[in-house]
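Long-time lurker. I teach an intro course on protein structure, and each term I like to show students one example going from raw sequence to a predicted 3D structure in token notation. This year I'd like something fresh instead of my usual example. Would anyone be willing to generate the tokens for the chain below so I can use it in lecture? Attribution to the forum is fine with me.
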Amino acid sequence: MIAAAASLAPVPAFKPGHNVNPQKKFHLVFSLLMGLMMIFLMTFVITAVNVGFSANFLQTWAKAFVVAYIVGVPVIFFLAPLARKLTARALKMPMP
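-- Reply from a regular --
Happy to contribute to a lecture. Here you go:
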């Protein structure tokens, strides 16, 4: 009876000790952090330029940030490798 109950226990989708390719993990975390920093600053500056520091500045900026982050992170994730290749080619350097 106990063995049958144990076999019905849910299997975790991600095992903590599971080896994920470190390069892929690095690229994903890099994209998330680069997106956070760049999009935070750019949406802040562009919102300030367009609407000024009005009463609804934070609400307007937060909306712009969320939309830009949702769009920007996948763009960074997929275009960063291309940017690295083009940079290496332009500088006549081997790919890092």
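Some talking points for your students: Helices lie at 2-7, 22-51, 57-90. The chain has three helices and no strands.
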